[in-house]
Structures are given as structure tokens and as C-alpha cells.
Recover the amino acids of this structure.
């Protein structure tokens, strides 16, 4: 199971590397398919017979599927970097949260003092009642 | 008794003067940046949703055309981005949004408002105790005027504000500086994700999806026009220009999102660079541009989704 996972990861990394290390090869392939798609779309619009339209549409489906895979590969090539950047950002958020708590702590200390004084005020009333001060 | 009271007045005056009544320049700039940054991250998330929706629509259009021949197989409907790829993007956008939101909370008015509220509560407690005649009955030395109570509360408020500003001045620049590279990197990765209509990325996938949707809609018309009523045929034909318009609108939204990501990185860099400065005209200009781009996108994605 672990080796399968590792092999899948290796494949993904290899896939990502193809897109990252050879962007021009990827781009050339993409450009070729993109150009084919434009030509087939124009051919579909020009075709008059339904059978001809359907066969062009079938070919278009194949080209679309290929372009979709190429775009998916391109997106996947950035996933590792995005995950690493997410880690760094989460670290910064933790530091900001700590600062936020420190700032809140200042206000909460003032609140505690206010409560203590309020407590003294209440205690005076109790003391007055206990000792029978008029 | 008169002399210490005067000293108190001078001390409070100095404290209030030192802290001022407003935020420090960096805190102000950080708070403005954070608000726009939250909007930019939300727009980026919408960019992925728009492409996923168009991709789903293409698969449904294929299903409709091929249903008689192939039937329905749920597993054939797949999202454009794998769960792993999408999860990384969702995570980075969420982290960026949280970074911006927490920056806004830390650098905005909220901590100062909180200290004002608590200092006011302290003032009330002190006023109550100073006017408590029973305290004087218990101890003849326990004299505390309401004037002194008010002054003490003002001093605490000023001191609290000074502490908050001190902590922010000390820690914010360091956190912002540490995030300079990651924010630039994230923005350039997301810009690359959005790509180009012809060369690849989300904009290319979106263009291809809409082109395919238009072809499939025409195919549907060619296949079923004979069995449609006049109004059904009209509705199916009317969908064609709507698809073309929606394609343009969605691509424009992605283009603006892409530009705003580039602007977000530049503005964040300018924010970091402005840490020690009182005024930062460069930051102000970049922020104004970022706000303009963010306003351009306002409701854009909702309109695309509605069509």
C-alpha cells in the first residue's frame, strides 16, 4: 500500500516535472492541439451535412479531452509549490494570532482591574452590613 | 494633595500626547491593505468555480447528446481539478484570506476600541468607589475624588493604547517582512494558474469549454430541431449568443482577477517597504489601483453564475 502510494507520488512528481522542466515542450504540444481545435471548430461551422458535422464534433471531443489533460497537468505542476506557500502563510497567521491575543490581553487586564474595583465597592457594602456601620 | 494631582494631570497629558488618538501610519496602511486583500482572495476562489462550472456544463451537454447511445455513467462526470490540486488551492486561498483578516484585526481600530471600552468600565468602577460614602466611613484616609477617578481611567486608556501601538510597531513589520516572498510567490502561482486564453491555464480551459458548449448547442439544434416546437427552437437558438456573451464576461472576470493578484503582490511589497515611513505615496497609489480592480469585479462573478 505504501509502495503504491509512493509510486503514485513519484508519477505525480514526474508529471509535474514534465510541465515544469520542459515548459516549451508542453507549450508546443498545447499550441498544436489548440490550433487543431480552432481548425476543427471552423470546419464544424462550415460543414453542411449532419454526418460531416457529427464526425468533426467527435474529433473535437478527442482534441478537447487532450487539451483538458494538458491544462490539468499544467495546474498540477504548481500544486506542490502552492502547498508549501500555504504552510508558510499558516505560520504567519499563527504569529499574527499570537500578537492578537497579546493585544487582547492588554484590554483584558484593564477589565480585570475594573472588576476588582467593582468587587471592592461591593465588599464595602457587605462590610457595612456585617459590622453594622450606619 | 494639590501637587500630586497636578503631576497626574501632566502625566496623563503626556501619555495622551504620546499615543495620540489615532492609529500609527503602518497600522493604518496594513488595515486598508488587509480589507482589499480579503476581497482579492475571494475573487480568486470564484475564478476556479467559474471554470469548474463551465467544465461541468460541457460534460452535461455531452451526456445529453450521447445519452441514447451511451447511457449515463456517473463516474464519467469528473471535476476539472483533482481533489488534491483543488485542495492545495483552497488551502492557500484560505490561508491568504486568514492572513489578511487577522492583519485587519490586529492592525485596525478594534484593539484600541476594546481598550477604550474596558478603560471606560474602569472609570465607572472608580467613579462608583470614589462616590461611595461608606468607604470614608470605613477609613478616613480613603479619599478619592471623581475627578481623580476620571483622570486615572484616562491614564489607563492612554497607557493601554501606547502598549498596543508599541507591540504593533515592534511585531508587525517583522511578520509583514517574513510574508513578502510567500505572498509574491502565491500571487505569481495563482496568476500562472489563471493563465492565458490561448496558451493554457484556467482562461484557456474556460475558452475551450465555452467554444465546446457552443458547438454542442448547435449539434443539439441540428439533431432535435425537427422535433422542437417553435418556442423551444427559439429558446435553444437564443442560448447561443448568451453562451458567447457569457464566455466574454467570464474571461474578463478572470483577466481582472489575474491583474488584481499581480497588484496584490506589488501592494504587499510596498506595504513592507513602507514600515518605517510616515507617508508612503507609492503604497497609496498601488492600493488605489487594487481597490479599483476589486470594485470592477464587484458582482462580476455573480452575473456569470446567473447566466
Amino acid at each position: 500500500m505504501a509502495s503504491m502510494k509512493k509510486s503514485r507520488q513519484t508519477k505525480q512528481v514526474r508529471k509535474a516535472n514534465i510541465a515544469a522542466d520542459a515548459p516549451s515542450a508542453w507549450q508546443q504540444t498545447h499550441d498544436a492541439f489548440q490550433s487543431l481545435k480552432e481548425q476543427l471548430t471552423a470546419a464544424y461551422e462550415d460543414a453542411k451535412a449532419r454526418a460531416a458535422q457529427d464526425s468533426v464534433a467527435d474529433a473535437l471531443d478527442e482534441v478537447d479531452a487532450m487539451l483538458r489533460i494538458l491544462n490539468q497537468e499544467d495546474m498540477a505542476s504548481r500544486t506542490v509549490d502552492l502547498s508549501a506557500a500555504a504552510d508558510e502563510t499558516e505560520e504567519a497567521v499563527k504569529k499574527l494570532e499570537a500578537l492578537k491575543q497579546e493585544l487582547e490581553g492588554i484590554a483584558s487586564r484593564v477589565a480585570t482591574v475594573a472588576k476588582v474595583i467593582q468587587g471592592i465597592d461591593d465588599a464595602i457594602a457587605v462590610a457595612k452590613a456585617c459590622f453594622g456601620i450606619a | 494633595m494639590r501637587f500630586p494631582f497636578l503631576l497626574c494631570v501632566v502625566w496623563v497629558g503626556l501619555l495622551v500626547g504620546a499615543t495620540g488618538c489615532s492609529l500609527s501610519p503602518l497600522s493604518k496602511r496594513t488595515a486598508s491593505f488587509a480589507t482589499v486583500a480579503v476581497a482579492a482572495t475571494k475573487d480568486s476562489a470564484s475564478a476556479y468555480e467559474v471554470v469548474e462550472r463551465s467544465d461541468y456544463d460541457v460534460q452535461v451537454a455531452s451526456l445529453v447528446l450521447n445519452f441514447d447511445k451511451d447511457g449515463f455513467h456517473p463516474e464519467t462526470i469528473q471535476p476539472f481539478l483533482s481533489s488534491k490540486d483543488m485542495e492545495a488551492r483552497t488551502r492557500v486561498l484560505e490561508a491568504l484570506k486568514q492572513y489578511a483578516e487577522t492583519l485587519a484585526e490586529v492592525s485596525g481600530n478594534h484593539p484600541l476600541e476594546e481598550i477604550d471600552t474596558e478603560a471606560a468600565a474602569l472609570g465607572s468602577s472608580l467613579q462608583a468607589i470614589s462616590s461611595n460614602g461608606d468607604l470614608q466611613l470605613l477609613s478616613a484616609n480613603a479619599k478619592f475624588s471623581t475627578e481623580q477617578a476620571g483622570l486615572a481611567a484616562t491614564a489607563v486608556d492612554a497607557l493601554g493604547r501606547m502598549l498596543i501601538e508599541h507591540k504593533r510597531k515592534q511585531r508587525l513589520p517583522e511578520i509583514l517582512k517574513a510574508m513578502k516572498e510567500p505572498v509574491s510567490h502565491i500571487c505569481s502561482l495563482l496568476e500562472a494558474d489563471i493563465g492565458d486564453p490561448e496558451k493554457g491555464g484556467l482562461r484557456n480551459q474556460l475558452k475551450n469549454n465555452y467554444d465546446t458548449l457552443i458547438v454542442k448547442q448547435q449539434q443539439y439544434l441540428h439533431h432535435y430541431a425537427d422535433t422542437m416546437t417553435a418556442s423551444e427552437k427559439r429558446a435553444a437558438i437564443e442560448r447561443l449568443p448568451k453562451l458567447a456573451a457569457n464566455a466574454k464576461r467570464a474571461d474578463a472576470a478572470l483577466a481582472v482577477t489575474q491583474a488584481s493578484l499581480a497588484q496584490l503582490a506589488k501592494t504587499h511589497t510596498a506595504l513592507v517597504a513602507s514600515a518605517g515611513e510616515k507617508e508612503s505615496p507609492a503604497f497609496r497609489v498601488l492600493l488605489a489601483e487594487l481597490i479599483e480592480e476589486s470594485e470592477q469585479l464587484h458582482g462580476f462573478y455573480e452575473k456569470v453564475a446567473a447566466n
Observations:
- The helical segments of chain A are 2-21, 23-46, 50-76, 79-131.
